[in-house]
Amino acid sequence: MRADDTPLIRLEDYRPSDWLIDTVDLDIRLDPHKTKVRALLALRPNPAGDGGAPLVLDGDDLALAGIALDGTPLAQDAYSATPGSLTVHAPPARGFTLTIETVLAPSANTKLMGLYRSSNVYCTQCEADGFRRITYFLDRPDVMSVYTVRLEAKKSDAPVLLSNGNLVAAGEVAGSDRHFAVWHDPHPKPAYLFALVGGALDHVREDYVTADGRKVELAVYVEPGKAGRAGWAMDSLVRCMRWDERVFGRNYDLEMFNVVAVSDFNMGAMENKGLNIFNDKYVLADPQTATDGDYASIEAIIAHEYFHNWTGNRITCRDWFQLCLKEGLTVFRDQEFSADERSRPVKRIADVRTLRATQFSEDAGPLAHPVRPRAYKEINNFYTPTVYEKGAEVIRMLKVLIGEDAFRTGMDLYFIRCDGTAATIEEFLACFAEASGRDLGHFARWYEQAGTPTIVASGRYDAQAKSYTLDLAQTTPATPGQTDKQPVVLPVVIGLVGKAGDLPLKTASEAYAGDGLIVLDRASLSVTFDDVPEPPIPSLLRGFSAPVRLELDLADADLLRLLSSDSDSFNCWQALQSVATRALVAAGRGDGATLAARADDIAGALGPFLRSQALADPAFAAQVLRLPAIADIAREIGRDVDPDAIHTAHRALSAAVGTNLRATLLELREALDTGQRYSPDAASAGRRALRNEALGLIAIAEPAAGARLAERQFAAADNLTDRLAALAAMTLIPGEDREALIARFGDIYRGEPLVLDKWLMAQALIAEHGTLDRVKGLMQHPAFSLGNPNRVRSLIGGFAANLTQFNRPDGAGYLFIADMVIALDRTNPQIASRLLGSFKSWRMLEPGRKALAETALAMVAQTPNLSRDVADIAERALA
Ligand code: TRP
Ligand code: ZN
User: Fold this and answer.
1) Are 435 and 480 members of one domain?
2) Based on the domain organization, do 497 and 411 belong to the same domain?
3) Considering 546, 575, 596, which residue would you say is the last residue of a domain?
4) Residue 553 predicted with pLDDT over 90
5) In the listed set 183, 200, 217, which residue is the last one of a domain according to the structure?
6) Which residue, by CA, sits nearest to atom 3 of ligand 1?
7) What is the CATH number of the domain that holds 393?
8) For 105, which DSSP code?
9) Could you read off the pLDDT of 697-744 as tens digits, one per residue?
10) Are residues 413 and 521 in the same domain?
């Protein structure tokens, strides 16, 4: 399919369904090649729809095996069926039932959408439109039904049979080697939340009692033999359930809650009602096979999917344009949970790093789109950082603007008013307008307008009047299809930092809302603060109060003073990042003259900071020590980007800082080595993070010493975090020792696919010319498979994220990824189209690379029989 032949689906064309489906009874006989599905649908005309309309059900790759209306088989001319739809020409204008039979081949399903097999486990993925690959249906989120599901399978083939809701019956099928289970979910839900699982699985379980006294059986199901790695996921589940009760007053609403880990999965996890299905990477953890980062992501994703039970499931989306209604809000909720469980400032810094790396780069390129898109060809291409991460930022701004109390009141109102419905952003915002008594009409522009706003700020101190005036202006760059940008409502939280800390903020300005909050809701404004006793250093956008770029005209020396004197931790961190960014941007543009001097300044500020504060908060210090990523610098430069120049500057800055701080870094590494057994708690993880950040700098500054340190750490480590960090440090140092450690690592973790993923990725990220050949070689490794999304993301996706090698000046990196996209598209279009997204920043490259990237993109676009997923990305990337 070519993208330009695909119809564009538009928000403004939304119409309620002509038909509703009140109940769905599914009878599914599982078989790898011939799964029989019988669906009994109770239909009725939608009072809000068009009564006399024909009934058109969605399908995808389906074959109809039988159809009956109110129990009577339909005559041939009463309906027409294709793989993509089933039409009943003249349905009765009243309630009736439809029985539909389809036959599926889960083993042949490589798209991992609908019903498929993942290493001998039957499982489903229905969001966004996978249910139509199981049976013909009104596959849209505003059609909500009560499901009863009978599953049957050979006992030896699938001893465990799970679906949504509560188990109501189970038993043997008399006189056969088969058994069955019946599940009933009393909560009406859209088809995208349907799920089933069948297979041989081990589990851990735990009893839970909700705050409102309901007993719940929790279970985490994993591959046989891996139950020992399910404990952390269960622990995280219990903690996030308590948190949602405490912080949002939300209780769980079924007798059972099941989590299942599968090894072939297109994304992170899925919030199916009462039956969350996970990529096993986000469930399985023990100290030998998971890093601190994995423990943190498991905690966050378990929480994310659980939180969807209220924000997504109980209240779902009217249509897919409202995707951020559930995703942005649920990301916000999981970020808050992690912040409460761990360190709030460190979590905020990590989230902002992700936002900038993924969302800012999306917003700056051809794939930019609003948080609520207005049109799409393929909805699966809109599960993006903009919908998820920027969507969460919008909720965070709303909270800052209306205050904590009104925010909680608005959420309560939303849960009461919209429960059981398929809602819209407008309905959501109305709850907060009511709770706060404010007009949120202007704020709503955040959902419509794409692009990352820039705030240009400057300040003036008037020594005579003892006043300080802050000038703020905002602009948003043009994005595809949106050239005319309007000002948005920007909460700018500020402080004025004096010699002894924050100065009191006194002003008559209407833009000042108190508590440090300036509301910049027009193109520009000035705020004058009175009774300012000394010239302050402005600390703007505290806590990163709005998802914007900030251009602040402040000397390096003043910024570096904030590192030790700002009361806002985020801005302490940001201060050093800003100075490093300036240095790297200049050098990346070919002006390396100031790099050495700036490296000295940075090290000069870092040294005292580390010596006085690092041991008190190692996790935070690790964040401070980590320089901005090469991609961040590329985006700041914005045009004619030469990734090699940035990389060279980045290495030079790291080397200079590492050399300058050598003694301090080594002392810290000693002091942080507690010699205790591994524990995944945040404090221990923080100590490891700082030790390993230091190791990385030493490896760059003094390769020989760094290599010895890495080898020793690898040998002594009792956990994967330290081993992987040692490997990563070693990959920075070319030579035989590196190759030996890579080989050893591969050997030790031979039987651990998830650990080998990290090993593949570490090699794919080596910033050297030989990496492309290395990656091609690794594709032949027995651990690699193009059929498994995690393997592809690690090796191929890792290479595409390797800025200097993907962007090789000879174009070989582009051609390799284009070839992979084309190959993957034949089996798994979602994975192929995500990989093609690696080209999203191609337009900012220098002319030589830009032309080569365009050629590779065009080669993809011109390939016959592309999926809609890949065709859509190719078309938009080239537009
Ligand atoms: N709704 C899921 C989440 O954010 C993600 C999701 C959407 C997904 N589509 C998917 C997961 C397809 C796997 C496959 O939690
Ligand atoms: Zn989600």
Assistant:
1) no
2) no
3) 546
4) no
5) 200
6) 270
7) 1.10.390.10
8) -
9) 999 999 999 999 999 999 999 999 999 999 999 999 999 999 999 999
10) no
| Tens-digit pLDDT profile for residues 173-214 | 999 999 999 999 999 999 999 999 999 999 999 999 999 999
Q: Is 332 in the same domain as 183?
A: no
What residues have CB less than 8 Å from 439, skipping those under 6 apart? Answer: 433
User: Considering the domain boundaries, does residue 459 fall inside one?
Assistant: yes
Residue 50 is predicted with a pLDDT of 86
Q: Judge whether 124 and 130 are in contact, CB under 8 Å.
A: yes
**Mind giving me the DSSP string for 514-535?**
STTEEEE-SSEEEEEE----SP
DSSP label at 123? Answer: E
Note whether 691 and 669 are within 8 A (CB).
yes
Classified as helix, coil or strand, 457 is strand
| Active centre residues (catalytic) | 305
Residue from 492, 487, 485, 534 nearest 509 by CA: 492
Tell me the residue range of the domain where 355 lies: 316-448
Q: Which tokens is 518 given?
A: 């300036």
In this predicted structure, the answer to whether residue 4 has a pLDDT above a threshold of 80 is no
Q: Give, using CA atoms, the residue closest to atom 10 of ligand 1.
A: 127
Q: Which residue has the tokens 């045009």?
A: 639
- On the 0-12 / 13-18 / 19+ scale of CB atoms within 10 A, 459 is buried
| Best residue for ligand 1 mutational test, from 60, 112, 125 (most atoms within 8 Å of Cβ) | 125
HEC profile for 613-674? HCCCCHHHHHHHHCCCCHHHHHHHHCCCECHHHHHHHHHHHHHHHHHHCHHHHHHHHHHHCC
User: Can you tell me the distance from the alpha carbon of 687 to that of 657, in angstroms, rounded to the nearest whole number?
Assistant: 20
- Please state the rounded mean pLDDT for residues 584-603: 96
Query: Is the pTM here over 0.85, yes or no?
Result: yes
Residue 380 Cα: closest atom of ligand 1: 9
Residue 2 tokens read as 């070519």
791 and 813 housed in the same domain? yes
Q: For tokens 């990305």, name the residue.
A: 873
Partnered with residue 524 across adjacent β-strands are 473
Give the pLDDT confidence score for residue 5 in this predicted structure: 78
Same domain, 418 and 499: no
For residue 544, give the DSSP letter: G
Residue ID of nearest Cα to ligand 1 atom 13: 267
Residue 3: its pLDDT value, please?
A: 53
Least Cα distance to 845 among 707, 697, 591, 644 occurs for 644
The protein residues having their C-beta less than 5 angstroms from ligand 2 (an ion) are: 327, 330
403 vs 489: CA distance, rounded Å: 15
CA 351 – ligand 2 centroid, Å: 16
Beta-bridge mates of residue 317 = 423
Residue 44's pLDDT band (cuts 50, 70, 90): very high
Question: Is residue 559 in some structural domain?
Answer: no
Ligand nearest the Cα of residue 328 is 2
Which residues are registered as beta bridge partners of 207?
217
Six-digit token pair at 420?
Answer: 């059981």
Task: Quote the ligand 2 centre to 229 CA distance (angstroms).
Answer: 23
Residues 397 and 477 in one domain: no
Note whether residue 654 is domain-resident.
Answer: no
Q: How far is CA 305 from CA 120, 261, 331, 540, in A?
A: 24, 13, 10, 34
Residues 19 and 136 in one domain: yes
Ligand 1 neighbours (beta carbon < 6 A): 125, 127-128, 266-267, 269-271, 304-305, 327, 383
Tokens at 723, concatenated: 């081993």
**Integer Cα distance of 727 and 741 in angstroms:** 7
Longest Cα–Cα distance in the chain: 97
Which ligand 1 atom is at minimum distance from the Cα of 268? 11
